[in-house]
Design brief:
Layout (H helix, E strand, L loop, with lengths): L1 E6 L4 H13 L3 E4 L10 H13 L5 E6 L3 H7 L7 E3 L3 H9 L5 E5 L5 H13 L6 H15 L1
Parallel strand pairs: 1-2, 1-3, 3-5, 4-5
Helix pairs in contact: 2-3, 4-5
């Protein structure tokens, strides 16, 4: 898979770890920044990743900020993006299984390294169930297309 990864300054170190993990797992990674720890505005990097997902330049995206919430709000403003702020293995799995989430939003401040690694692996390995869930995702896509 090709995966775009971005963060703000608070998520910078976690982003670097995730990039390394993804590369170890054999994925192609687009590091959307930032490239240094200096203070930045999270929407800039959320939009970079979300646009890459929306345009099909990457298969999925991962975003990291202090809580994961700001990144999620910004990413979901981009058409075709279904970003989910996940905080444990179950929410990571269900965001894929039931919502076909294409952007994973994580907290740099509230999750430990082991949990983040587990969540990323689960999120990448979990397939969308389709069925009744596909009907619901299609409703979201239709609403978005009408706007």
């Amino acid at each position: 898979m090709k995966i775009a990864v971005g963060s703000d300054h608070r998520g910078f170190e976690v982003k670097r770890r995730i990039v390394n993990l993804l590369q170890q797992l054999g994925h192609e990674v687009l590091d959307a920044g930032p490239m240094a720890r200096e203070s930045v505005d999270y929407p800039d990097f959320a939009f970079r990743v979300a646009v890459a997902v929306s345009k099909g330049e990457v298969d999925r995206g991962i975003l990291v900020c202090g809580t994961g919430i700001g990144m999620c709000i910004a990413a979901n403003k981009v058409s075709g993006v279904r970003a989910a702020p996940c905080h444990d293995s179950i929410t990571a799995e269900m965001s894929r299984r039931h919502n076909d989430a294409n952007v994973l939003c994580l907290s740099a401040d509230l999750l430990g390294e082991e949990l983040i690694d587990r969540m990323v692996r689960i999120w990448l390995e979990t397939s969308f169930e389709n069925g009744r869930h596909a009907r619901r995702v299609e409703k979201i896509q239709r609403y978005e297309a009408e706007r």
